[in-house]
Amino acid sequence: MTSDSETEGWRSWHDASEPIRLGVSSCLLGELVRFDGGHQRDRFVTDVLGPWVEWVPVCPEVEVGMPTPRPTIHIEEDERGEQLVAPSTGENFTEAMTAYSKRRVGELEAEGLDGYVLKKNSPSCGLSRISVYKNGKRAHRGGVGLFAASLIANSPLLPIEEEGRLNDPGLRESFIEQILCRNRWRLAVKRGLTRKRLLDFHTAHKLILFSHNESASRRLGRLLGEMSKTPDEALFARYELDFHMCLRSKMTRKRHTNVLQHAMGHLKQFLDSKAKQEILTTIEDFRQGLLPLIVPLTLLKFNMNQYSVDYLRGQLYFDPHPKELMLRNHC
Ligand code: SF4
Questions:
Q1: pTM here?
Q2: What tens digit of pLDDT does each residue of 226-256 get?
Q3: What are the extents of the domains in the chain?
């Protein structure tokens, strides 16, 4: 069967000197920073993802100077807009948190992050669906934590997720794929981009991009096809933006099926009708939800290595992230 050494997987694009660096709400790592003096350790974050990444823990409430334990705070809407307040004491942290967040997200940007995992339901860290109060009563759940809002505004291309959403296998795979892609992009920039290197980068990511958004992926292809019209700096900036945006589109069973069929097109000249039928049946079973993605992928990988199909062997799609994370066993 296929081994990692036979394909140009994620490891061949990874450099230990540029680890996958993720910002994280400190309480998710088990740090005792919550308002009640406790933590919210998340086992996926610490035990599964932890061994593969370097964490940059941040607790905005502690870093802004709040004690632990502390009175609970929430977002209150009044004539000034959204305010971060402690209802039991009347303290207002809006100004301090806004100034702190602006400074801190700038520092984090300079550290070079590949993504961020935020704690859900927090008026500071929560990414969405945060309770907003009016006159002491909950008015709606459409708020965003103050620190999270600053992070999104300052780093619009940064992959950001809440720990709760990472329980969904599809969102989990999508997030991890995005952070690895971003890490490779950062590494490519650090090593110095040239047009040739950009083309190599794009070629290796073609099927990954295709699995997220076929039309956005074709737009990227066209951008590179007409690259002589664009000055270097503008080309690299445009590619970076479109690359990250394409990866934001959700991978679906249908999109994966299209990629698998596309890969099959590069293999069929080497296969007899029985082998072809076996792969096509497996792809169809995957399309119908009868098999996980790992099954047709393994079959395709075996054959592309067997027949040395270099275009497919160079595609990160077949080994985009550590297999130990078992992301493709569930979708
Ligand atoms: S949710 Fe954010 S602010 Fe609250 S304890 Fe965790 S890291 Fe600190």
A1: 0.93
A2: 999 999 999 999 999 999 999 999 999 999 9
A3: 4-167, 193-331
